[in-house]
Design brief:
- The chain is α/β, with parallel strands linked by helices and 253 residues long.
- It has a domain of 158 residues.
- Helices cover 29% and strands 17% of the residues.
- The radius of gyration is 17 Å and the shape is globular.
Length: 253
Amino acid sequence: MRPWGGGLPTSADGGRLLCIGDVHGCASELDVLLRHVDADVGDRLVFLGDYVDRGPQSLDCVRIVLEMKRAMPRTVLLRGNHEEMFLDFLGMGGAHGRAFLGNGGMQTLRSFGLDGPLGTNPPAAEAAVREELEFLRDELVLQFAEGGAVFVHAGLRPGVPLAEQVADDLLWIREEFLLADPGLPWLVVFGHTPYRDGPLFDAPRKVGLDTGCVYGGHLSCLDLTEGLLHQVRKGDRRAKTIDVTRRLEGLAA
């Protein structure tokens, strides 16, 4: 992958390079945002993970991104630490399942019509959501790179080459990444750490796109190709668009 030169990253096939931050069960806002952005098959849409937990519509969120992947195969879906906790709690792999219920997991179980790990629920309840659970287990990736940008859920371990980054850091890292230059020649776009006042544009080369919708903030989509930030506030039925070209270009310093 070529280094980021400080311009606006572009999709490999010439479409827009779009990225959506942490959703956390805010399916209504996700629907509004996607309609506003109006992505088509020529665009690359990257989701940063954390579709489930905390918000009330986790199953609806998973179904929306599943259908996006089917309709637009170039869509990239990252795994977040909340999917990791959920899958581990259910006994489907993952790690850190003990933390699931204390981090908004009860909302997710209610949304999926489940009471506990797989095998403890009525067979019909588990069968009704098996496709979505297998999708979360099998179709989510830990990182993606295109157009001079690297997309991860939580961040990168500074000083470690991209190919040697480990899953726990990609899913969970916080201060070690936020307080240091990753030391890599690419723009790093990440979620995980909420910024309710708006995305973090942090030189050199970092954009934090979790804007805390589930906490009353916004759900955000960054159009890296056109330098536009699309947002919908929690509970709103309309989105807004802000030009952030200068803020993106300033991250190369």
